[in-house]
Amino acid sequence: MALGYVRPARPEDAGEIARLQLATWRVAYRRILPRHVLDNLDEAYLARRWSAAVQEPPSGAHRVLVAVEQAEQSYLVGFAASGPADAEALAPGEPADALADGVVAVTDLLVEPRWGRRGHGSRLLAAMVDHWREDGFTRAVAWAFDADEATRGFLTSTGWEPDGAGRALDVDDMLVPQVRLHVGVPAEPAAS
């Protein structure tokens, strides 16, 4: 029987997070982003960025979590990153104060496709919500590619919904539309 759990990312996880990101993007986004862009992503560069995110987060509310599949061996199978909403979470033309204090932004929530549908995404999201509560966040936002039905479907199945904001990323002269989703961070569950 396989077991899964979530833990904070460690510095030695950066290379595996980068590998997971590339593998997932190359499968999940192959019909959304230009192939040459996906083929030319630099795993070593991504690993350095993830290393910095894990070892030198901008604040204590910036977190990188990993999902682990544990069977005869343990495997990193997914990851999530979030932090206080900043300019990257805003829609084009949206005023800087549109996302007030108390809003957290999910920058990444990925599970490698071959490990999908095993509860890892739900465990990552639940762990993030626990941290958001601890940090006093009351609302969360996340951008998703409009054509990424898997991510949008997962988030909406857990209560997220579009907030009406949209943008288009310029990826090598190709505009790729995104929608922003949001959800209220639920209060601490009542003790039974």
Distance between the termini: 29 Å
What is the CATH level 1 assignment?
Answer: Alpha Beta
Lateral strand order in the biggest sheet: 1-2-3-4-5-7-6
How do the helices and strands follow one another from N- to C-terminus? EHHHEEEHEHEE
Task: Catalogue the unreliable spans.
Answer: none
What proportion of the residues form beta strands (DSSP E)? 25-35%
- CATH architecture heading: 3-Layer(aba) Sandwich
Keywords: Acyltransferase, Transferase
Protein name: GNAT family N-acetyltransferase
EC number: 2.3.1.-
Domain N-acetyltransferase: 4-182
Entry keywords:
single chain; 192 residues; alpha+beta; Aminopeptidase
Give a brief rundown of this model.
Helices cover 30% and strands 33% of the residues.
How would you characterize this protein structure?
This protein is an alpha+beta fold and 192 residues long. It has a single domain, classed as Gcn5-related N-acetyltransferase (GNAT) (Aminopeptidase), CATH 3.40.630.30. Helix content is 30%, strand content 33%. The protein is built from five helices and seven strands, in the order E-H-H-H-E-E-E-H-E-H-E-E. It has helices at residues 14-28, 35-39, 43-55, 120-135, 149-157, and strands spanning 3-8, 63-70, 74-84, 103-111, 139-145, 161-171, 174-184. It has a seven-stranded mixed sheet with strand order 1-2-3-4-5-7-6, sandwiched between helices. Strand 2 (63-70) and strand 3 form a beta hairpin. The longest helix is centred in the middle third of the chain and has 16 residues, at 120-135. The two termini are 29 Å apart. The model has no long low-confidence stretch (mean pLDDT 91).
